[in-house]
Specification:
The complex is a heterodimer of chains A (657) and B (153). Chain A is mainly β. Chain A has two domains: 458 residues, YVTN repeat-like/Quinoprotein amine dehydrogenase (Methylamine Dehydrogenase, Chain H, 7 Propeller); 123 residues, Immunoglobulin-like, CATH 2.60.40. In chain A, 10% of the residues lie in helices and 42% in strands. Chain A is built from eight helices and 45 strands. In chain A, the strands form ten sheets. In chain A, strands 6, 7, 8, 9, 10, 11, 12, 13, 17 and 18 form a ten-stranded mixed β-sheet that branches. Chain A has a six-stranded mixed β-sheet with strand order 41-40-43-44-38-45, with no helix packed on it. Chain A is globular and about 85 Å long. Chain A starts with a helix and ends with a strand. With 153 residues, chain B is mostly helical. In chain B, 61% of the residues lie in helices and 0% in strands. The chains are: A mainly beta (657), B mainly alpha (153). At the A-B interface, helix 2 of A face helix 1 and helix 3 of B.
Chain lengths: 657, 153
C-alpha cells in the first residue's frame, strides 16, 4: 500500500514534470509567466463590499457601439454608457430627446462600432471632464460628460471612410482628432470607378476643436493627404505637444485584396503633423472651403431635446498651399499603433508585419527637418530619411506588435497579437525585459492613467479578442475578455481575467477621485429647461393640437400624474413627456405602455424624457413604471383610453379622484 | 481554505472597524439623550440639521411666495392641504408640529422615518417613505412660512 502510494506519487510527479516541460517548451520560461500565487492575486483585486475601487476604467464596446465603465482593481462592472447604438434598457435612442443624436447625412443610424475612448486632458494629464469616443463605420465622434456619464454630443466627420484614428485629444484638449482609414473620393457622393483609386481618392486628417467651457466640438479643419489608409493616431506630449502622429498603411494604393496588395512595401509611414502650425494657417485663411454634408447633434440647453444641425461646408488645408507643417517618417511595415511616451520624445510604431518595434525620436525628427534630411516627398509632403529619425528598434518583440503604453518609469509595454503576449521593454536600452501571455490574441492594452504625461505604474489591462476556454462556455460566440496585470514591480503579474461587453477595443483608466468629485447625483429640478417639463405639480395636464396629444406627466413615488387619460383617438400621435419629480440620488422612474413600438423610457431624478406612442387600435391601455422605485411600485400604473378616430370622447385626465 | 480564512479575516476586520465607528457616533449622540437615544429637543423638534429653535416672527410675504413655489414643485405631488394623499394633509401641520420639526422632516426625511418615533409611526401609517427633495435649509424655512400663512388663512 505504502509502496503503491509512493509509486503513484512518483507517477504524478513525473506527469507534472512532463506537463511543466511541455508548458516550458510551448510558452517559455515558467518564471516569466508571472503566475502569481492565487491567494496574493485575490488579495490584490479584492475590494470589500461597500468600498470603492481606485480607478475608473472606460472600455469601448467595439461593435456594441457603447462604452462600458468598470472599477479597478476589482474589475467590477459599473455601467454601460450608450453612445452610438440605441439602448432599449434606458430608452437612449428611443426617447424623443435622444433621437436627434443619431442623425447623420445618411439618416438615422441606430448602430456603430466604437473604438477608442479618450479622456479630456489639461496640461497633458487626464482631467475627467469629458470622454470622447469614435464611431468607425459612419464616421462620428461622441462626447460623454463625466458628471452625468451621458452622451451629450455626436458630430459626423465628412470626407472620411472609417474614422478609426480617433478620438484622441491633444494635451490641453485643444483638438480631438480623426482620420480616414479608407481613402475615398472627396467630392460629395462622387460616383467613379473603384479602379480610379489613384486618381480620384484622397485621405483626410480631421481636427475638431473643443470649447473649453461646454466641451462642444467643431470641425475646425481637415488636411488633405495622399490616399493611404490612416490607421491610428496620437497627440504628442510635453516637447511634442504641438504635434499629432498618424500611422499609414497601404502606401501601395491598393483597393482590392489589401491583405496581399497593401503588404508589398517594406516601409509605410508615420505622418507627423504640426497641428498648431496647421491651425494657424487655417486661421490666417489659407484653407479652402469644400462642400460637405455632415450633422452636428448636441444638447443646446441643460437637458431638453438634443438638436441636429446640418453643416454644408468644411475648411480643408492642402499641404501644398502653405509652408511645411507635416512630414512622413518611413516605418516598417504596415504599422498599426503609434504611441508617444510620457516625455513626448519617443514615437513608437507597432509594425504589425515587422520583426522589430521601430522607435522614432522626436528631437531627431526636428533635427532632420532642420537639416533637410529627406529622401523624397509624397504629394509634396517631405519623407524624412529612416536613419535620421530612428532611435532604436526593439528586437524580438514577438509576432505582430500592435500597441504600446508606458509606465512613466522608463518602460514600454507592447501588445503582440499573433504570439498573444505583452512584452515589456526598456526605453533606455530598447531591450525586452519581460513578457507575459495574454488570453487570447491581444489588441490594445491600457495602463492606469495612461496616454498622459504621468501614467500610474499600477495596473495594465490587456484587451483580448477571443475567450475560448477562459470561462464557462457560452456557445460558439463568446464575449471578449480583458486581463488585469499588476505592473508595479519588475515583472508583470496576471491578477484577474474577466469577460466584457461587445469588443473592448481600447480603454482608458483614470484615478477615481478625478471623477467622483464631479459626478452629479440628481438633475436639479430648478435647472430643468426642458420645454415640456412639469415644473409645478399643478402643471401636469394633457393638451391636444390636431392629431398631436401631449401628456405633461409627473412621477413621484409611487404614482403618475395624471394616471387616467381618456379622449385619445386612433391615429393620434401621443407624446408622454415624463418628468421625474424626485430629487433623491438614484431614484429613477420609467414608463412602458402596452403595444408601443418603442422601448421603455427611464427618467433620472429631476429629468424629463419623452416617449412617443401612436396607438393603432381602440381599447384600454395600461402603462406602468418600469423602474422598481418603491414599496408601492406595483401600484405605480395608469390607464389610457383609446377611442375610434371619429369618436367624440372628451379629452380628460385625472389623478386620485 | 486559506483564501477563505483571509477573506473572513478581512471581513471581520471591517465589521470590527465599522462597529467601532458606530459606537463612537452613538457615544457622541448620547449627551443629553432621553428615550430612544434622542434628546428632548430631537423628540420635540425632530432629527436633522435644525438643532436650535427658529425665530418665526411676523409672516414674511416674500418668504411665503418662495415657499409656495418650492411647495408646488417639490411637495404637492404627494401632499394635499386637506385630506390624506400619498402623505398626510399639510393644511394644519403648523398647528400640530413645530417649525423645526417640519424643517427637519423636509431636510432629513430618511433619518426622521428611521429614528424618530413620530417619523416611524408616520411611515407605518402611510407606507411610502418621504424622499429628500434637494431642499436647502433656507428653502425649508420658506416652506414653513408658506404653511404658516396657509394655517392663518
Amino acid at each position: 500500500m505504502k509502496k503503491q502510494k509512493s509509486n503513484m506519487l512518483r507517477g504524478m510527479m513525473i506527469g507534472a514534470g512532463f506537463v511543466a516541460v511541455a508548458a516550458f517548451l510551448f510558452t517559455g520560461c515558467p518564471s516569466q509567466q508571472g503566475m502569481l500565487d492565487t491567494r496574493d492575486a485575490a488579495e490584490k483585486v479584492y475590494v470589500a463590499p461597500g468600498e470603492h475601487d481606485e480607478y475608473y476604467a472606460f472600455l469601448s464596446g467595439g461593435y456594441s457601439g457603447q462604452l462600458s465603465v468598470w472599477g479597478l482593481p476589482s474589475s467590477r462592472f459599473l455601467k454601460v454608457i450608450p453612445v452610438f447604438s440605441q439602448d432599449p434598457e434606458t430608452g437612449y435612442g428611443y426617447s424623443e430627446e435622444t433621437k436627434p443624436l443619431f442623425q447623420t447625412s445618411y439618416g438615422f443610424i441606430p448602430w456603430d462600432d466604437s473604438h477608442h475612448p479618450h479622456i479630456s486632458q489639461t496640461d497633458g494629464d487626464a482631467d475627467g471632464r469629458w470622454i470622447f469616443i469614435n464611431a468607425n463605420n459612419t464616421p462620428r465622434i461622441a462626447r460623454i460628460d463625466l458628471d452625468t456619464f451621458e452622451t451629450k454630443e455626436i458630430i459626423e466627420v465628412p470626407n472620411t471612410g472609417g474614422n478609426h484614428a480617433s478620438s484622441f485629444v491633444t494635451s490641453n484638449s485643444e483638438y480631438v482628432i480623426g482620420a480616414t482609414r479608407f481613402s475615398i473620393p472627396y467630392e460629395k457622393d462622387l460616383d467613379v470607378p473603384i479602379d480610379s483609386y489613384a486618381d480620384n481618392f484622397n485621405g483626410a486628417l480631421s481636427f475638431l476643436s473643443i470649447d473649453q467651457e461646454t466641451g462642444r466640438m467643431n470641425l475646425d479643419f481637415q488636411i488633405i493627404v495622399p490616399p493611404y489608409n490612416y490607421d491610428l493616431g496620437r497627440a504628442g506630449k510635453g516637447i511634442s505637444s504641438d504635434w499629432v502622429f498618424f500611422t499609414t498603411y497601404n502606401t501601395e494604393l491598393a483597393h482590392t485584396l489589401l491583405e496581399v496588395n497593401a503588404s508589398q512595401n517594406d516601409k509605410d509611414f508615420v505622418a507627423a503633423v504640426n497641428w498648431r502650425k496647421a491651425a494657424e494657417f487655417v486661421a490666417e485663411g489659407h484653407g479652402r472651403t469644400m462642400d460637405a454634408e455632415y450633422y452636428h447633434n448636441y444638447y443646446e440647453g441643460n437637458q431638453g431635446f438634443a438638436v441636429s444641425h446640418v453643416k454644408n461646408e468644411v475648411t480643408v488645408l492642402y499641404p501644398e498651399d502653405v509652408e511645411e507643417f507635416m512630414y512622413f517618417l518611413p516605418t516598417p511595415k504596415s504599422p498599426h499603433g503609434v504611441d508617444i511616451d510620457p516625455t513626448g520624445e519617443y514615437i513608437v510604431a507597432g509594425g504589425k508585419l515587422a520583426t522589430v518595434i521601430p522607435v522614432h525620436s522626436f528631437s531627431r525628427m526636428l533635427e532632420a527637418i532642420e537639416n533637410r534630411d529627406f529622401e523624397g516627398d509624397s504629394n509634396g509632403i517631405p519623407i524624412i530619411n529612416y536613419e535620421a529619425t530612428i532611435a532604436g528598434e526593439v528586437e524580438d518583440p514577438g509576432l505582430g506588435p500592435l500597441h504600446t503604453e508606458f509606465d512613466g518609469d522608463g518602460y514600454a509595454y507592447t501588445s503582440v497579437y499573433i504570439s498573444s503576449e505583452i512584452v515589456k521593454w526598456s526605453l533606455d536600452t530598447f531591450e525586452v525585459v519581460d513578457r507575459i501571455d495574454s488570453y487570447y490574441s491581444i489588441g490594445h492594452l491600457m495602463i492606469t492613467g495612461g496616454d498622459t504625461k504621468n501614467p500610474d505604474k499600477r495596473y495594465l489591462v490587456g484587451l483580448t479578442k477571443t475567450a475560448k476556454d477562459r470561462y464557462l462556455p457560452t456557445g460558439p460566440k463568446q464575449n471578449h475578455p480583458a486581463q488585469l496585470y499588476d505592473i508595479s514591480g519588475d515583472r508583470m503579474q496576471l491578477l484577474y481575467d474577466f469577460p466584457t461587453i461587445g469588443e473592448p477595443h481600447y480603454a482608458q483608466a483614470i484615478a477615481a477621485n478625478k471623477i467622483t468629485e464631479r459626478v452629479k447625483q440628481i438633475y436639479e429640478m430648478e435647472e430643468n429647461d426642458h420645454p415640456h417639463a412639469v415644473r409645478r405639480v399643478g402643471d401636469a395636464r394633457v393638451e391636444r393640437d390636431g392629431d398631436v396629444v401631449r401628456v405633461y406627466m409627473a412621477s413621484i413615488r409611487s404614482h403618475f400624474r395624471p394616471d387616467n387619460i381618456e379622449g385619445i383617438r386612433v391615429g393620434d400621435t401621443v407624446y408622454f413627456h415624463l418628468t421625474n419629480l424626485e430629487q433623491e440620488w438614484d431614484v429613477v422612474h420609467g414608463i412602458g405602455i402596452k403595444g408601443a413600438n418603442n422601448a421603455e423610457i427611464l427618467v433620472a431624478p429631476g429629468q424629463t424624457k419623452t416617449l412617443k406612442w401612436e396607438p393603432t387600435r381602440t381599447g384600454i391601455y395600461p402603462f406602468y413604471c418600469t423602474a422598481f422605485c418603491s414599496a408601492l411600485h406595483q401600484e405605480m400604473q395608469g390607464y389610457v383610453r383609446v377611442s375610434a378616430a371619429d369618436s367624440d370622447v372628451e379629452l380628460v385626465w385625472r389623478t386620485g379622484n | 481554505m486559506r483564501i477563505t480564512t483571509i477573506i473572513v479575516a478581512i471581513l471581520s476586520l471591517f465589521l470590527f472597524i465599522s462597529c467601532g465607528n458606530d459606537n463612537e457616533s452613538q457615544q457622541n449622540r448620547s449627551q443629553g439623550e432621553t428615550q430612544n437615544g434622542l434628546t428632548e429637543f430631537e423628540l420635540e423638534h425632530g432629527i436633522g440639521p435644525v438643532t436650535e429653535r427658529v425665530e418665526l416672527g411676523v409672516i414674511d410675504p416674500e418668504k411665503v411666495d418662495k415657499g409656495r413655489s418650492i411647495y408646488e414643485m417639490k411637495c404637492e405631488a404627494c401632499h394635499n392641504m386637506e385630506g390624506r394623499m400619498v402623505g398626510p394633509a399639510l393644511g394644519d401641520v403648523m398647528e400640530r408640529r413645530s417649525a423645526e420639526f417640519v424643517m427637519n422632516f423636509i431636510l432629513n426625511p430618511s433619518g426622521m422615518t428611521r429614528e424618530h418615533p413620530v417619523g416611524k409611526e408616520l411611515l407605518r401609517e402611510y407606507m411610502t417613505p418621504m424622499p429628500f427633495q434637494n431642499v436647502t435649509e433656507p428653502e425649508a424655512r420658506a416652506i414653513v412660512e408658506f404653511l404658516r400663512d396657509h394655517s392663518n388663512n
